[in-house]
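Appendix B, record 7
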Amino acid sequence: MTSNDEYVVQLLTERGFVTGEQVDAASKSMRAENETTLDVLVSSGALSEDDVLGTVADQFGLKYCHVNADAIDPEIVKEIPADIAKKYGVVPVVADEDAITVALSDPMGYDAIDSLRYVLHGRDVEAVISPRAEVAAAMAKLYQADEPADVQTRDEFGDSEDATGDDAPVIRLATLLITNAIKMKASDIHLEPMEKEFRVRYRIDGALRKMDSPPKRLQGAIISRIKIMSKMKISEKRAPQDGRIQISVNGKDLDLRVNSVPTNHGESIVMRVLDKSNLALGLPQLGFLSDDQTTFERLIKLPDGVVLVTGPTGSGKTTTLYACLGQINTPDKKLITVEDPVEYQMSGINQVQVNKDVGLDFSAALRSILRQAPNIVMIGEIRDEETAGIAMEAALTGHLVFSTLHTNDAPSAVTRLLDIGVKPFLVASALRAAMAQRLVRAICENCREPYTPSDREIKMLGQFSKTMPEKMFHGVGCEKCSKSGYKGRKGIFEIFKVDDAIQRLIFDHAPATLLRQRAREMGMRTLREDGMLKVANGMTSLSEVLRVTMGDAD
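Structure tokens (predicted):
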């Protein structure tokens, strides 16, 4: 039985159309290879087609009705050509200036409806659900077929996201949740069942914003819709699941990485919006100042060695790594990544997904891909001694290795590697640089204005007050930034390069404070110093830099 059939049987049981005993008996009496419990329940008379289609249509906010070819205006039939109607298994029944309504027999066949909108050049398409035999008979009569058409059945929703009119509130709401988030440049969509509301929040520029909540009564249907779209098992509500949605919004290809977790008030869903346009970001768009950009470009073009990007979760490490790969991805180089999960699918790069269920963890995957003779390797994250050791050894045998670590500053990457068990000589020999980063909200270009800092702000600037201009910038708030004064995010960076002196300190197992002191002597700019330069040039605000560097050393 497919996950969708399980879901339908569960719905019918909950609504009293069939008992648990009948379901158990039907599941034991299946004969044909492709027969399902639902098929047995219908063929045995325990359920009627009206019961099944009516219940599922109602669950998804659709109308269920019978269709009669004799009652359909021939002029309406001309709205959809015969080959298109047969391909998508639909029959046009009503049309007006705004939309055309079609009948189909599969309540979960919304890929047909979504696709029709494109085929019909943007014409709005609405749907009603009708019995399969009636749709097939109407199609045969209306399109003068020799025999009833083979009405298509689809088990999963399509990739495109378009609302299907007032008859489909669940579909429309699920669509709006996604499209509105994308319009607002959200990085995450949170659907959170609370006791008395179904809370929706978007993470925009790193901050969560509460949106209008859909009706609590539609919570289950909306979550089911999202789970079908992301190819999760609908009937599984007690265990976490992961899925993925690939969609196109306004001509832009986007991936949504979806995760569900059971809570005491229902399943909580988080959708991470992965915008492929981020792959085309250059280093200036990430927020590099010209001198750091020159330094980092030189590092990522080295023939071998390890380059690490460090920072807490949500600091943009993965985006930076992908931008690096995009910049150095040329036909004469072989690039392989090991990720958990693969966030962005990049052309020209071999990407390996970690799968612990079959024993393919980071270290096992890394050992395997090194036999593929890559020039450049990207490891999603170094988490243990074995992975770190393999990465260092790969760097010493002629590979350029990129990876991430969770450390607060760049020099601490060295002590973290030593702490997890990597030998000092390996770190000293293989590590070329570590770069710490944070994300700060960028001041909205549309409403940015200069202002004179207050005495309190000058005091907060401390030593940096001497080098700051008389005027700083802030966003006063406008429609384009939702009155926040900020739009988009930029990085602030701390680049720690390993020179001969640093190598000797690493050999001696020196603490991070000594490594940091040496790097400062060699001109390393700290996260806060880099942030203050970006405050001075109007890229971000003082409060933003202080917020993200509060726990960092100057």
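Remarks on this record: Residues 169-183 form the longest helix (15 residues). The two ends are 61 Å apart (CA to CA).
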